[in-house]
Amino acid sequence: MIENSGYIGRYWHMIEDGRMQCDLCPRDCKLHEGQRGACFVRMRQDDKMILTTYGRSSGFCIDPIEKKPLNHFYPGSSVLSFGTAGCNLACKFCQNWDISKSKDMDQLMDQASPQAIAKAAEEYGCKSVAFTYNDPVIFAEYAMDVADACHARDIKTVAVTAGYMHDQARRDFFAKIDAANVDLKAFTDDFYVKLTGAHLQPVLDTLRYLKHETAVWFEITTLLIPGRNDSDAEITAMCQWIKKELGVNVPLHFSAFHPDYKMIDIPATPPATLNRARNIAMQAGLQFVYTGNVHNQEGDTTFCPKCQTPLIVRDWYQINQYNLTENGQCPDCGTTVAGRFDQKAGNFGRKRIPISIMAHA
Question: Would 107 disulfide with which of 70, 74, 102, 155, CB 3.0-4.6 Å?
């Protein structure tokens, strides 16, 4: 069994007034003895940075990879997903707030070593392991250890993250990651400050870093919230930035908001808004634009960017047609589709299978 405290973390230094500054993310929390950071899971204890959730999870589940969402990373495969508690952002619209905002360690029902997680993923036939549900940035050391154990068994690793990190932690973390979905929550700093307690620029820095300095496959998700980040002007500006800074073949997912946490007075995103955003993005030149949290087969389907042949036809997370060649090309015009593909799609489908890791320890 793993203790829920005592694991010594990285990314901190002492400052002149005697406090310990956490260097993991741009919050730069400055801690007196016994204090925790804004994420609540990194704590100063005996002049060390203690990770209070190392080896503990809010639960494990086998999901379709498309649920992360990743549409160009081994489509149809299964991924063992888990998270811990806490978060370094303070999103008022958090869709997993019971996990990410939890300060109750009793929420962490499962305990598992990195080796046990990798072993379970292998035994269940999962192509990858995903760090998700809450942001893996705050449990970066645990995630990196899990990634090492997974790679030893030829299992891929996936990070679902807001990308709010400092440079050194970013480099260490993504060196262990095979694929990522990065939440680009909006394209104004005002939104980030008022609704997440963070800033936009570090997220843009992470996206640029992933594109230009790593081999990580990544996709982007933007949750569209009515009246907050769904204007034509903001969506256009974001898509133009993506095209210029990241390229036209980075998949972009527009997802529907539903009222939750501290924004229950905001209506759910209508499907028409997602379709409008998708059209804006495609008109801006982006090649792979998807809609999420709504039923829209066209918005789920991967089309050839040159001849528009449907290449991967999805219905929710179910793959109904897979027409890519073994080299990841369009069978009609030979265009290579950006991503990571096997010769055939997986057949995991829409299942969601909660599991316990204890038996694999």
Answer: 102
Of 85-99, 124-138, 143-157, 183-197, minimum mean pLDDT range: 85-99
- The whole-number average pLDDT for the span 102-112 is 59
Does residue 208 sit in helix, strand or coil?
A: helix
Residues in contact with 219: Cβ distance below 8 Å, sequence separation at least 6, in sequence order: 69, 70, 71, 72, 73, 179, 180, 181, 182, 250, 251, 252, 253
**DSSP-based three-state secondary structure for 170:** helix
Residue 308 falls inside a structural domain: yes
Q: How far apart are CA 322 and CA 312, in angstroms?
A: 5
**Cα gap 87→42, rounded to integer Å:** 10
Question: What tokens does 278 get?
Answer: 């998708």
Helix boundaries (H) for the chain = 97-100, 114-123, 140-151, 167-174, 189-196, 201-213, 232-245, 271-283, 297-300
Query: How many domains is the chain partitioned into structurally?
Result: 2
Q: Which of helix, strand or coil describes residue 360?
A: helix
67-94: pLDDT as tens digits: 999 999 999 999 999 999 899 999 988 8
Q: Are residues 44 and 185 in the same domain?
A: no
Report d(CA 122, CA 80) in Å as an integer: 10
What is the full DSSP assignment across 258-326? Answer: ---TT-TTSPPPPHHHHHHHHHHHHHTT-S-EEEESS--HHHH-EE-TTT--EEEEEETTEEEEE---T
Assess whether 17 and 72 both reside in one domain. Answer: no
Query: Which tens digit of pLDDT belongs to each residue from 155-211?
Result: 999 999 999 999 999 999 999 999 999 999 999 999 999 999 999 999 999 999 999
The answer to the question of residue 134 being in a domain is yes
Q: In the structure encoding, which two tokens stand for residue 98, read together?
A: 């019971």
pTM: 0.95
